[in-house]
Amino acid sequence: MLAGAAAIFALVMVLLALPFLRRGKDAPEARGIKVWIIGLGLAFPMAVLAALLAYGLTVGERLLPRAEDGAIRVEAEGRQSGWTFRYADQPGRSTSGVLHIPAGRPVDVDITTGDVIHSFWVPRLAGKLDAIPGYVNTLRIEADAPGDYAGVSAEFSGIGYAGLTFTVTAHDEAGWQAFLGDDPQ
Amino acid sequence: MNALQRHRRLTTIWASDPGLRGWFTTVNHTDLGRMFLMASFFFFIVAGILAMLIRAQLATPHSAFAGPEIYNQIFTMHGVIMMFLFAIPTFEGLVVYLLPKILGTRDLAFPRLTAYGFWCYIFGGTMMLVSMLLGIAPDGGWFMYPPLTGPLYSPGINTDFWLIGITFVEISAIAAAVEITVSILKYRAPGMSLDKMPIFAWYALVTALMILTGFPPLILGSVLLEVERAFGFPFFQADLGGDSLLWQHLFWLFGHPEVYIIFLPAAGVISTVLPVMCRTTLLGYGWIVAAAVALAFLSFGLWVHHMFTTGIPHMGLAFFSAASTLVAVPTGVQIFAWIGTMWRGRPELRMPMLHLLGFFVTFVIGGLTGVMVAVVPFDWQAHDTAFITAHLHYVLFGGFVFPVLAGLYYWMPHVTGRKRFFRLGEFAFGMIFVGFHVTFLAMHWVGLLGQRRRIPTYAPEDGWTAVNLISSVGSFVMAIGIAMVLIDVILNVVTAVRGTRNPWGAGTLEWAMIQPAPAYNFASLPHVTERDPLYGTPDMALRLARGEGYLGEPRRDWRETVTVDIASGRPDFHVIYPANTRLPIVMSAVTGLFFLSLLLKAYWITPFAMAGVAVLAWRWVWSLGRKEDIGPQAIGQDITVPHAAQVARAPGWWGSVFLLTANATFFGSLLFGFAFLWTVAPGWPPTEWLPASLWELGLGLLGAALAPAAMHGASRALRRGGRPRLGLALAFGGTGMLAVSVGAMMLHTPPPVEHAYNATLFVLGGYAMFHVTLGALMIGFLAARVRRGYASAARQSEFPIVTLWIDYLAAVGALALLAGHLPGLLA
User: Fold this and answer.
1) What ipTM was assigned to the predicted interfaces of this complex?
2) Which site from B89, B355, B421, B598 is most exposed, i.e. has the minimal number of CB atoms within 10 Å?
3) CA–CA gap between residue B104 and residue B188 (Å, rounded)
4) In angstroms, rounded to a whole number, what is the distance separating the alpha carbons of residues A127 and B218?
5) Assigned fold of A72-181
6) Contact status, residue B399 vs residue B355, Cβ threshold 8 Å
7) With contacts defined as CB-CB under 8 Å, which chain B residues touch A126?
8) Where do the TM regions start and end (chain A) (predicted)?
9) For residue A47, what are the contacts with CB-CB under 8 A and spacing of at least 6?
10) Predicted local distance difference test score (pLDDT) of residue B499
11) Are A53 and B681 an interchain contact pair (Cβ–Cβ within 8 Å)?
12) For A110-152, how does the pLDDT look when each residue is reduced to its tens digit (9 = 90+)?
């Protein structure tokens, strides 16, 4: 996308510079309209955009959660004071500030809020999705490798917004079983 | 009468009052345009200083410059002032100043309304400034999402300043939009058919129509949120049947068209200035008009792309993603039409051209990143990061500020009558251009590194320190550039040498007058036969000054002009403008009192303020009346046209049509909100509906049928020389029936604080009740006119206007009643 944008930008800059170098000849307006407006103004962006849109929609479709693949379900509740996470596999268990998931398996995060609008964003795992009062939004994430992934609230939520961060800890299979085995807090 | 005598005579008729008094009583568009532009530039400086504070805060990690309480106010106010107190008023000022001149007429359609809008802007803007000076400015972001801005999480007065102050300022936008639309359609030089209209006027027309349909959803949202905050009506509270997403829809239904409302006038400047800088004419005039219209339509279909992360359904995402990319097509048409224009001509690197090149470079980058964020998966990452901040500044600074600076240097000789003497401008341009790109290219980068928008500080470990510092340094370079432009302008205004008329060799009519512009614009009105009249008739200015056009002989103390048929440009009717008056500033002060009483929760003042506005509005309209018929008027060139009081579609009728367009959009948004809550919000259906009553509904519908029928009858009777009294009385009775029915509905509505359904119904009723009162006042006004001998078959133009309003009242009254009673009847 960046390379394409840079190429289009370069093209426009060249077209912009050339008339300063060549002395204009009054071409008939009909020809100008054909070249500039119909060719470059209409056809060119339409072709580029159609390709880009098709690409964007397919990629977007791939990122969507599908019901049948047996994903782990967790719940993330945002508050101005911090994020709380609950686990479908272990009812009653909740953690604050750290979301535990197994690595290498898809996880569906049900995102809710306890007060104002927040947004759940773990840049390395997925795009962001908002937590909106009265709704449950589900985001599919998947960590390829065990480790800690930084997460933030990405919707302005007042005074403590800058500090509204959390961590996603992805466990290997043994670690995940150990986590599930822990007593509920 | 020679040219000099004519100039003196017209100046006595048209001039504003001398001295300081003139500032407050002027209704002249040249004065008000300049005042608008000065004020908006002042707000630009204020918001620019706030931007400097933001960059100072973010320059280093762990900055102790401002805490989050203050920082949140700073970035909120930066956005609010730039959007509402700089960008829109700059459009208004530019158009108010230029439009009559470029269209070859003497003033805008409603001079007093221009002044009223200006003072509303000043008073509303002052409210916002005061809140900032007291440290209680809005702090919920310029987009004000509830529930963060709701009564629970923002109990202070900060948010109320936004909701009330900005709504107050919006009056000026709506007033200007009505005025601009009517002026462009009706107030042009004879002969100027739509296809000969300067391209700038086309852009202004499209922008004005967009304001009329884009701002009402925001005004509605502000009203609902303020009512929620003040009285606890739960429109945006999920647990009581409200939905915070309703705000987001209403806000972006305004917010996205807003971007094009800002860009299109700037595009109008480019389309006007660029061909002149290239010694040619615009390539593809018709295509550009079509592109602007297409842009306007498309821009209303893509607001949801601001909400890609709210969890809306996938089909919705695909649709709005497609619409968002599609909007790049008409933009592309315009960009390439402009570049094609440059290829046709011989571009010269004069001062305005530099800023136009700045526009091209910046705006194209902004457009390309815009296409990127229209791609949904990319947006899921980039949304609410500094990348978006950078993108929107490329679009707005590139698409608005650079063109406006080009326009500033292009029209400065017109405003001052002087020739640029101090050459600071080129250097200033370099500073602004380099400073801007350093600031915001860096911001793209840091956004992709994950820096969120609106955070007051960050840690050194984040790795954003160097990029932020570079960005901050760039912003200060840019600020110095802006300051140099300011100094350049002041020096040129104060000291530069007298310039020649039409220094750029332009073809549009604003250069066919004395510079600086006289109060009356044209000593006689031109007859237009081509798109660039000065190219065909280079001595136009002299001919008009010699009185060779229309209305070249000043009569009595009349400020005269002539309107045209919309499409063909044939002379239509004769208009006498109102003269200088204090009424607009007084009325906007009383309007301000109304808003202030809401802000300070001094509700006992509110009815007095409303009554005050009603009394002043009555006087406003009353003073236009005459006790004797004026009859048809000769306008020169052996043409005689009827006077405005005689015609069925007077300026006031056209103004009402477009004001009602905005009003209907407001009402439509309210019905949309009702349907949205019903179908989407959690917590529906409510526990009880309004107890339906066929009697009440029937009475109201009967009133809604009777009032307009009787008004049409009264209108017809007067036009035929008969007596309209019976019709007026029946129409009044009809509004009374509506009042009873609507009143009963509001009385029977379950408590509005308990559920969003009740609250919405109450607001629907209140809206209908407001229009019932308005309609009754208007009918009363006509009755007073008839009684005092101000109405006759030749002075009948007020009747169709009131008829129009009564038609509207009947429609919204009936719809509100049906919305109230039907669910209960069907249940």
Assistant:
1) 0.93
2) B421
3) 6
4) 29
5) Immunoglobulin-like (2.60.40)
6) no
7) 380
8) 33-57
9) none
10) 84
11) no
12) 999 999 999 999 999 988 999 999 999 999 999 999 999 999 9
